[in-house]
Design brief:
28% helix, elongated, lyase, Mopterin_CF_biosynth-C_dom
Length: 167
């Protein structure tokens, strides 16, 4: 097989060989949302979740997850990220914690999976911290918002979000 593919000559899954790709600055932004009931949302906003500061723990979990993406997602390349950001916007009208993540590096492959992993793990951490109050929380949608730096240049989902991450 030729070109970038996860399949080898025998049709078996392998990690893509990116040796020949150029080192470029690459970045990606992803988002997720956790919807909570009124009681859980109020406790979260007040910082009164019994397990502690859910947003602080979720931020650290998201950053850690981005750095460990290659250990979690088969066939992902281990990357030396130069920036990982996890931010939250609390939307009381929707009872939603909006999560946005940003990842950047100078490398041969993109960071979309790292940004998506950070958003997913931050959302799951909020769930874990708040589940005693609201086991029926809803997570999602989780999606890629934008990416840049690859061969195809800049891509944007067209989905508007309430918060902006400062790259």
């Amino acid at each position: 097989m030729t070109g970038l593919t996860h399949l080898n000559d025998r049709g078996e899954a392998n990690m893509v060989d990116v040796t020949e790709k150029s080192v470029r600055e690459r970045s990606a932004r992803a988002a997720s949302c956790v919807r909570l009931n009124d009681e859980a949302f109020s406790l979260l906003v007040a910082g009164n979740i019994k397990k502690g500061d859910a947003l602080a723990v979720a931020r650290i979990a998201g950053i850690h997850a981005a750095k460990k993406t290659a250990e979690l997602i088969p066939l992902c390349h281990p990357l030396a990220l130069t920036k990982v950001e996890v931010d939250f916007d609390l939307d009381p009208d929707e009872g939603c914690v909006q999560i946005q993540t940003f990842c950047r590096l100078a490398g041969r492959t993109g960071v979309e999976m790292e940004a998506l992993t950070a958003a997913s793990i931050a959302a799951l951490t909020i769930y874990d911290m708040c589940k005693a109050v609201d086991p029926g929380m809803e997570i999602g949608p989780t999606r890629l918002l934008e990416k840049s730096g690859g061969k195809r240049g800049y891509w944007e989902s067209g989905v508007s979000t309430k918060m902006e991450v400062d790259p």
